[in-house]
Amino acid sequence: MQNAALSNAGLGVVHEQAARPRTWRRVSLFGFSLVGTGLTIVLCAIVLSGADPSGLAFVAPMLAITGGVGYLVSSRGRWAQGVGAAAALALVALTAPMASHAPIDSFFDVVPLVLALSGAATILVGAGADLSRRKVGERTPGVLVASGATVAAVLGLLAVVSAIATYAGQETLTAAEREGALRVATKDSAFTTKTITATEGETVRIALKNSDAVIHDLRIKALDLKTTVKPGSEKLMEFTAPVAGSYAFDCSLHTNMKGTLEVLAK
User: Fold this and answer.
1) What is the pTM of this model?
2) What is the pLDDT of residues 66-78, one digit of tens each?
3) What's the CA gap between 207 and 221, in Å, rounded?
């Protein structure tokens, strides 16, 4: 009888030891699925909008790394959780600075970012619990499932609200505001006009149109000027041309987007 009791106790310990890594790995995998969803949204935006495919050089490898590390966590030992935690910390360091220019009314900026950060946090929770050998109680799986469902519901609601806000919040210029203004657009992560010419002292009026799915701005750093335009929106940028010379302009959020303001002498 005593031997049977000891045997059952031993089986219980073995069962708990087996259940713990499975449970926390599932938490980490849920995090990887959130990150993968965010990256897939960005990938679809690039492909469907016909944007410059150079963006794929960043997103595609990130998606492959996410899938690869997720596979390691699902099929290997506890050491893989350490790899997953390191990848999550790297992702946070890479994406957190973007939060300052990801407004709710710019769907393809805010939704992938929130998914990435939420996923990274979830991965860290799962990895931390597994690496610290945190016990799994009887109620733990149910609590984790409920928590995951809540997170998914909140993120889904955020996506819907952001999509509505992005569409409803688009700004446009009147015919009077456009009259006499130089038309400059952002399309495929580039300025359609590379050179803007003006005469010193004159008023420069630029009708800036964002035809991309993400937020852009036009910045003339030397003149401390910047106008930000949300997806699908149009804004008027107005300033007095400085002394004659060449002034570089770019998008402060995507510095590969560049152009030149040429100011001529009177």
Assistant:
1) 0.83
2) 999 999 999 988 8
3) 19
